[in-house]
Design brief:
single chain, three-stranded antiparallel sheet, 3 strands, globular
């Protein structure tokens, strides 16, 4: 008897978690009130926008920029009470961030981030619309990696500090959040169109607003044909990557004779990570990995790829799971049509 497509797969579980967290991060504040939600956390390791007045929590980047702008830069300029007024608040902010992060590691990117979920839903729409599929070559995927680090160091760290020092205009104090596509995506989901307006009160603010709308439009269009286009350059991905080795949650690929180097795991990877194909051990857990688990789902060898929390294996690849999963969806995310049994022609009798 042919293997049936399992009703509950890791991919379907992740999609369910993504949809629940999309609701929580975008609308959760409406349940407890905006100010209460803001007090719960400002250290979420996922792009959940502080400009969304209904959200349940917002991400670490706005907190970091705010503190670097209003505390670090200004305190350096004043040269007074630097450690007490800057180091401790920033340290506590990062401590709260790490307490969130240590539990799930970069699964915050692959399972919880609302912008990641929106991009995946748009990509699924593109597959239904039969849009051409594009994936990155190994060379292109590697060349893009420094971009997110440059954005983290330049837009999230450096400019807020220089704004606090008075070297750059005050509008550069939260420049990343002004151009972040999550700001537009999540607020538009709440029906708030204020954030898509391009303000002309200041030249830089106008430029940032125009850039934000351009970047958001590019992400929407690109996501129809390519998987996770913004995640590849996301500065929060870089910040998460800096801590990924400290978390017990990880992806492991075992060196085994069973691995035939088929490359299906890389085909399934939404981030086009070449290491999952060529490496083993923790080396396969590259900086762009979001712990979505698709490589483990589509590995046709038993136990070669595992999602682990410490010594505990949460999910293992298996040939039976792969065969059943492949019947419903290809590694690239193309849904397979259901096969219908053909009825015998009228008057035809079984032999």
């Amino acid at each position: 008897m042919a293997d049936a497509v399992p009703r509950l797969t890791l991919g379907r579980l992740r999609l369910a978690v993504q949809l629940v967290m999309l609701f929580v991060t975008v609308y959760g504040g409406s349940l407890v009130g905006y100010y209460t939600a803001e007090k719960i956390t400002g250290s979420l390791p996922a792009l959940s926008c502080a400009y969304d007045k209904l959200n349940g929590a917002h991400c670490q980047l706005i907190t970091t920029q705010h503190q670097l702008h209003h505390r670090v830069g200004e305190q350096i300029a004043q040269l007074g009470h630097f450690a007490l007024n800057m180091v401790l608040p920033l340290a506590f902010s990062f401590l709260a961030f790490y307490l969130f992060f240590v539990v799930l590691n970069k699964a915050f990117c692959g399972w919880i981030c609302p912008l990641g979920t929106v991009q995946e839903l748009i990509y699924r729409l593109g597959r239904r619309l039969k849009r051409p599929f594009r994936n990155l070559s190994e060379t292109a995927a590697r060349r893009l990696r420094p971009v997110k680090w440059a954005l983290l160091l330049g837009l999230v760290f450096a400019l807020p500090v220089t704004a606090g020092l008075g070297v750059t205009p005050a509008s550069t104090g939260d420049v990343f959040c002004q151009i972040c596509p999550s700001r537009l995506a999540t607020t538009l989901l709440t029906g708030d169109t204020e954030q898509i307006m391009v303000r002309s009160s200041d030249a830089l603010v106008f430029v940032f607003g125009a850039l934000a709308n351009t970047l958001f439009g590019f992400v929407v269009v690109a996501a129809l044909a390519a998987r996770q286009p913004f995640c590849r350059i996301c500065p929060l991905m870089a910040l998460n990557a800096a801590f990924q080795r400290l978390s017990p949650m990880r992806l492991v690929k075992t060196e085994s004779d069973k691995c035939e180097k088929c490359g299906i795991c890389r085909q399934a990877c939404p981030m086009d990570i070449p290491e999952i194909h060529h490496e083993h051990g923790r080396q396969a857990f590259a900086e762009d990995c979001t712990l979505c688990g698709r490589c483990a789902e589509y590995c046709p060898q038993d136990g070669v790829i595992q999602l682990k929390f410490g010594p505990l294996a949460l999910f293992k690849s298996s040939r039976a799971y792969y065969k059943a999963r492949f019947k419903g969806e290809t590694p690239a995310g193309e849904a397979k049509p259901l096969r219908r049994m053909e009825r015998p022609a009228a008057g035809t009798a079984d032999a």
